[in-house]
Amino acid sequence: MKKKLMLTSLAVVLSLSACTDKLELQPRQSIDAATALSDAQAVESAIIGSYGILGGGALYGTNFNLLSELQGSEGYVSWRGTFASYREVANKTYTNANAEAQRTWLAAYGAINNVNGVLNALNVVTDADQKSTLEGEARFIRGILFFELVRYYALPWGATSGNTQLGIPLVLTPSSDVNQANTQTPRSTVAQTYTQVIDDLTKAASLLPDDNGTRADRYTALAFLARVYLQQGNYAAALAAANSVITSGYYRLNPSVTSIFRNRNTQESIFEIQQNDQNNAGTANDGLTTFYASIPTAGGGRIGRSDVRIISTFVNSYAATDARRTELLYVGALGGASQYYTGKFTDFGANIPVIRLAEMYLIRAEANLQLGSATGASPLADVNLIRARAGVAPLTGTLTLAQIVQERRWELAFEGLRIHDIKRLRLSTGTFAWNAPKLVFPIPKREIDVNPAIVQNEGY
């Protein structure tokens, strides 16, 4: 069975969890929170509700993908939509009032507060296996959210000696009443934040079962650890984590490049948001299909807003026969014959892959190359495995880092990794260097107003 993320109604979240002052805590909610997690069923429901927040438009349903792609848009994509908040991200002209920076911060800390409540209430769970799994899921969710937040709201890993630049507030206890909600937590350093991320994900991997149905399991946590370590340039640890996922026996590459985007819960998917036509991140003002697609319908309308167009130079960087070009890029319903769109998101109710096996192969290849090793396979073999699936000729001779990076760009395009790769590889996007303050989101103004212990990022 594959390991997927279930998108669930936020009503569960609101009924079972407390809100911090970031989410406008009300006295009634604090009373509910004090009594809600009183048995194992309630704790289980709170975890399901936390997955629901992850699948919303502020997090993995839209923004954790789209914001990364727009921040690194130069020579890659262009924003043609009417939403000023996304245009500001693409142009790097956002202020501390940017709506996307604000809602992503608030939603992430809402989910973190939920899982902190779960961790605080584990004593009510008497079944040892259930308790272990619930703790693992809570730590997994908290770990990945701290990771996403520190990548967006802090200068990148390596920007200072010792990574002493400000990271994010590490909120590790729940706010279940007004007094707790008024606790002012300052920003930890980036080094401290990554330490907490790795601690949470490592513990999650040790606590979770190998297979947890539609929810996070051991290999989901290990796959995210591979991402974390790669972001740090810790190639030995990234290699070990990615190789564990690849050799687990739970996953295989799909035969075609389109399968994971056209089908649910395929053998390649490690972590996936499950949606359907009635329950998804959005069909008009949110959702990846909403912003990425431009597909005419029989009735004269179209699927998607045609907001994110693919720059032709990037389209032409693919080989003419590459299936990732011929099957996953298309000329859209708007913009003329030269306007391309990604075919990875074409159905409002389709699942959203968050992390998949192809990425693990590319992490293993890059880490092996950097270390001069061949754990699991040679770097060349891993890269050629991905290329063979795309129908392009294998590389020969001495493989270079530049070739692996280019393969990542082609294979993982429009999947939310763009700006993070630019930062970790110390590249630039347009005139912006990898460590430019304008590639860091502002802490929302309302957060600064209610928590004077938080220092704002440079330039805001």
UniProtKB/TrEMBL annotation:
It holds the Pfam family SusD-like_3. CDD domains: SusD. Residues 88-230 form the SusD-like N-terminal domain. Keywords: Cell outer membrane, Membrane, Signal. The lineage of its organism: Bacteria, Pseudomonadati, Bacteroidota, Cytophagia, Cytophagales. It comes from Fibrella aestuarina BUZ 2. It comes from the Bacteria. Residues 1-20 form the signal peptide. This is RagB/SusD domain protein. It is found in: Cell outer membrane. Its main location: membrane. Residues 349-434 form the RagB/SusD domain. InterPro entries: SusD-like_N, SusD_RagB_dom, TPR-like_helical_dom_sf. The keyword Cytoplasm does not apply. GO terms for cellular component: cell outer membrane. Belongs to the SusD family.
